[in-house]
Design a protein that fits this description.
CATH topology of the largest domain: Rossmann fold
CATH class of the largest domain: Alpha Beta
Shape: globular
Strand order of the largest sheet: 3-2-1-4-5-6-10
Order of helices and strands: EHEEHEHEHEEHEEHEEHEHHHHHHH
CATH architecture of the largest domain: 3-Layer(aba) Sandwich
Number of strands: 12
Number of domains: 2
Strand content: 5-15%
Number of helices: 14
Radius of gyration: 22 Å
Distance between the termini: 59 Å
Largest sheet: 7 strands, parallel
CATH superfamily of the largest domain: NAD(P)-binding Rossmann-like Domain
């Protein structure tokens, strides 16, 4: 009797945070894995994967990558919370997804799991439970990322058929270990908290957090059990920012910070925060987009995924505990505190001279919130603080 042929799964965006978690989860299950990479990388060499060079914006490369595949997981996408790459966001998130769908149909792929986002759900206030939408209108969104993901999601809903089953998963904010690329903004904030560089909380806002490993499991379940043309929220606990920071403090055995910043203050300071994060070579955490996003309803119900996909996410606290444990065990895999210090020291003077003068008015307006009234004194104090701060976990 001939041995049954192993099924092949292809993963786009495999080097990213979610993509890596998916490849790791797939590697412990039967079947072959092929990853689509724009550039060769050793990042996935620990897993037994086949590499295919290509780009979701290059249709021909997708035909070669998807040949012989049973399932394609389309994870690749471009997240932009700064709002300055709109045309590229549309090219990657919408046109790239159309290419993926077309290549899947051409190659006879049976299952496609598209990783959308809860960010393509129209904003609302309050705490009413939000369930999956059966259709999405990009015109109800206000940012290029949300619009492009909504348009791509709607396209996938419409293109699912008997030959190609397309399931759409919509994760909330991912946390968890293995952020080797250092691109996850929430993991960056956790790192800053551990470093003593985020000694405060916020008086407003919150979000929905899910462990990236649960998202990976949910995606595989969607391929195996999901219904074509359906969306599934892969979400977890809804926490206020204060509850999130308190959870970090509890895990570390610290007292929660007493300083709580207001939304108005943070919005005023966004130009300054942007300069400092660029100086430290860190992904943006607090931008006008992300600050306003924190004030929206994030009570996403994952009941549908529980019922149809046997989805069972861990608690946010357990995920944060694993995240912190991984960060401490893998300090060489992400920006260490010393590296952050050096990055800032190397670029702080240039950044201040070039950019902070443009926001001198902001500094002065924020004086009442604790900043020095004199701009030059503020600049010198900031540089001195950076040079003398004791950076320790």
């Amino acid at each position: 009797m001939k041995k049954a042929k192993e099924e092949l799964s292809v993963v786009t965006g495999a080097r990213g945070y979610v993509g890596y978690a998916l490849v790791k989860e797939l590697s412990g299950r039967p079947g072959k894995i092929r990853v689509l990479l724009r550039h060769d990388s050793k990042a996935l060499d620990e897993f037994n994967v086949e590499k295919a060079m290509g780009d979701i914006c290059d249709y021909e490369s997708l035909e070669k990558a998807f040949e012989g595949a049973t399932t394609v997981y389309h994870v690749a996408g471009l997240v932009d919370i700064e709002g300055n790459r709109d045309s590229l966001v549309w090219e990657v998130n919408y046109n790239g997804t159309k290419n993926v769908v077309a290549a899947c149909k051409k190659c006879g792929v049976k299952n496609l799991v598209y990783v959308s986002s809860v960010d393509c759900i129209p904003a609302s206030k309050g705490t009413a439970k939000i369930k999956e939408y059966s259709s999405l209108d990009p015109n109800l969104l206000h940012d290029a990322y949300g619009k492009s993901k909504a348009a791509a999601t709607q396209y996938c809903i419409e293109q699912s058929d008997d030959k190609l089953k397309i399931c759409i998963v919509q994760p909330s904010c991912c946390i968890g270990p293995d952020d080797y690329q250092g691109t996850n903004s929430v993991c960056t904030m956790i790192q800053l908290y551990l470093s003593g560089l985020f000694p405060c909380t916020l008086r407003f806002g919150g979000y929905n957090f899910v462990d990236v490993r649960d998202v990976a499991k949910g995606m595989i379940s969607a391929a195996e059990k999901g219904r074509g043309g359906e969306c599934y929220f892969l979400c977890g606990d809804r926490l206020s920012v204060t509850e999130f920071i308190e959870a970090l403090a509890k895990i570390e055995g610290n007292r929660p910070p007493k300083i709580a910043l207001t939304k108005g203050f943070l919005l005023k300071m966004c130009p300054v925060i942007e300069v400092l994060f660029k100086a430290a070579k860190l992904p943006p955490v607090l931008t006008p987009f992300s600050i306003n996003k924190l004030c929206e309803n994030c009570n996403f119900s994952y009941e549908k995924a529980v019922k149809e996909l046997d989805y069972s996410p861990m608690s946010a606290e357990d995920s944060l505990r694993d995240t912190i444990k991984w960060m401490k065990e893998n300090r060489g895999s992400h920006n260490t505190v010393g590296e952050l210090t050096k990055n800032i020291e190397d670029s702080i003077q240039e950044a201040i001279d070039r950019d902070l003068k443009l926001v001198e008015t902001t500094f002065r307006q924020a004086a009442e919130d604790g900043f020095e009234k004199n701009y030059e004194k503020t600049k010198k104090s900031l540089k001195k603080y950076i040079e003398t701060r004791k950076w320790n976990y």
